[in-house]
From TrEMBL:
One of its GO terms (molecular function) is phosphopantothenoylcysteine decarboxylase activity. The gene is coaBC. Binds 1 FMN per subunit. Residues 10-227 form the DNA/pantothenate metabolism flavoprotein C-terminal domain. Its cofactor is Mg(2+); FMN. This is Coenzyme A biosynthesis bifunctional protein CoaBC. It comes from Nocardia macrotermitis. Keywords: Decarboxylase, Flavoprotein, FMN, Ligase, Lyase, Magnesium, Metal-binding, Multifunctional enzyme. CTP binds at residues 104, 114, 154, 172, 176. One of its GO terms (biological process) is coenzyme A biosynthetic process. Catalyzes two steps in the biosynthesis of coenzyme A. In the first step cysteine is conjugated to 4'-phosphopantothenate to form 4-phosphopantothenoylcysteine, in the latter compound is decarboxylated to form 4'-phosphopantotheine. Catalyzes two sequential steps in the biosynthesis of coenzyme A. In the first step cysteine is conjugated to 4'-phosphopantothenate to form 4-phosphopantothenoylcysteine. In the second step the latter compound is decarboxylated to form 4'-phosphopantotheine. The keyword DNA damage does not apply.
Amino acid sequence: ERDDAIPRDLEGRRVVVSAGGTREPLDPVRFLGNRSSGKQGFALARLAAQRGARVTLIAGNTIGLDAPASVELVHVTTAEQLRVAVDKHATGADAVIMAAAVADFRPVNVAAAKIKKGAGEPNSIELTKTEDILAGLVQARRDGRLTGTAIVGFAAETGDEHGDVLTYARAKLKRKGCDLLVVNAVGEGKAFEVDHNDGWLLGADGTEQALDHGSKALLASRVLDALGPLLR
Ligand code: CTP
Ligand code: CA
């Protein structure tokens, strides 16, 4: 796509994007993490900037992606650090897009020194829930602590014997209370798998758009297209 084919519809807007995976330390050398690459969040940040937005990209662990041009890049490690950074940058933003894969749980205890084999070695890791950043943003908006910010969530769903991807995604949209949920259908054995659709865009207003299989840049453009009407 030529540069001049990209619309400048986000001129004057401020957009916050989270990307990549969080890491929760166990000791100074070990962590609980996930396989998020950060590619989708980086693609969103890059395109939002190309479309004219002032973009803050808050990145956890990624596969070593180049920083997008003209984007403010903030590095974080843990879910708690991500929460603090998102909350800080969300204030006054026109949109927050939560593409990051946030740990749901973290170890209760973080050893100050490397955990060793031998006496005192652990046989289990006690976990506690992290805060839900996306739900926190929605709550802040309900409470009036955050105003005028559109909130976009991501969900990767597989579906199982109790429900298909869309059923779970619709429930997640309701539960999270965000304005838009980008749903990726992942994994094998989906009960109601559609051949050529990799996901859906679900709007809080009940609109549902199938997302055809395509690049992360293409998905980013679909997401930003859907975001437009949600901006104040
Ligand atoms: N998310 C978040 N804070 C968390 C966990 C998730 O902000 N502690 C955000 C993700 O960035 C994503 C959305 O919530 O935009 C959905 O994440 P997902 O893991 O699909 O949802 P969960 O509510 O954690 O449900 P599940 O039990 O399916 O993991
Ligand atoms: Ca989760």
